[in-house]
Amino acid sequence: MTDVTDLTLIEQQMLLAIMRLHPNAYGVSIRDEIKTRINKEYSFGSIYAVLERLENGGLIESREGEATAVRGGRKKLYFTIAGTGEKALQASLNAMDAMRSGLKLKGAFA
Amino acid sequence: MSTFNLLLETHSIKLAGAGEANLWHQVSNNDSLSTATIAASPAKIVALIGTEGATPLVFTAGQLAATEAADEAAAAGSAALPREVTIPRPASPRTEPPRAAELLVSWCTKKRYREALLDDLDEVFQCDLTKGMTVARAHLRYWGAALHSITPQLLEAAKRIGIFGLIADYARRLLQ
């Protein structure tokens, strides 16, 4: 199991994207959400590698969507954040905030 | 000349009214052409196409007939109608992603996320075509995305088990 505060930046980004897109978080939508918000484009290989790590750690859950004829009979794989994932994300962001507090960074919101 | 983003799919859409052209989608020939030029009244074409970049629309006879009134009103106000409109010829909806790239991705990704990854690549490919990109360019982008997706995994595996290990792993997968 991943340490609750031991999330990498890309893991934080994935978890936040999954929360934002709920319940329609799948590969393309997650990539587009991250690209739209922080202008960073990850490859699908990187995205699924992180998603696998998060799922193995019990931080997210996946479910298969319905196959459609348009998509060649393939099924989408939707991801949702688990309770453990929310706690881990909160702890990780809190840790980051604790490190930031008191520092004056140019252009920072907080 | 106005340009509209139109996706006709495989439906044959007839513009109601005398002297107007048919819109059709030619899958078997003229796919290399980028545009099809038709002569029709703007009100009707806008009604047929809907908003720019929207999902393909299929109209019933009643909806088509409803555009007649708009055309007549427009014709009364403008002597220039009908005018020429250029519509981008859509890519064939039957166009498939490059098979070799799909196979490469299939071989190099874990079974757990294989279908989902291929599905995502396919969605991006179809999206490119819908945007009006040529099939050749969409294929190139698919190859790029496929290689971009598998390269990190291949490099990581090569570091861990070496080139011979990769070949042995590939052979093992084939035998399974």
Question: What does this entry look like structurally?
Answer:
The complex is a heterodimer of chains A (110) and B (176). Chain A is mainly alpha-helical and 110 residues long. Chain A contains four helices and two strands, in the order αααββα. Chain A is globular, with a radius of gyration of 15 Å. In chain B, α1 packs antiparallel against α2, α3 crosses α5 and α4 runs antiparallel to α5. The longest helix of chain B is centred in the last third of the chain and has 41 residues. At the A-B interface, α2 and α3 of A face α4 and α5 of B.
What is this structure's SSE topology?
The complex is a heterodimer of chains A (110) and B (176).
Chain A: H1 9-21, H2 27-38, H3 44-56, E1 60-64, E2 77-81, H4 83-100
Helix pairs in contact in A: 1-2
Chain B: E1 13-14, E2 22-23, E3 35-40, H1 42-49, H2 61-77, E4 83-88, H3 99-108, H4 111-130, H5 135-175
Antiparallel strand pairs in B: 1-2, 3-4
Shape of chain B: elongated
Top CATH class of chain A = Mainly Alpha
Order of strands, main sheet of chain A, comes to 1-2
How far apart the termini of chain B lie comes to: 59 Å
Mean pLDDT of chain A: 88
Into which percent range does the helicity of residues of chain B fall? 40-55%
Number of domains of chain A: 1
Order of helix and strand elements from N to C terminus of chain B = EEEHHEHHH
Short structural description:
The complex is a heterodimer of chains A (110) and B (176). Chain A is mainly alpha-helical and 110 residues long.
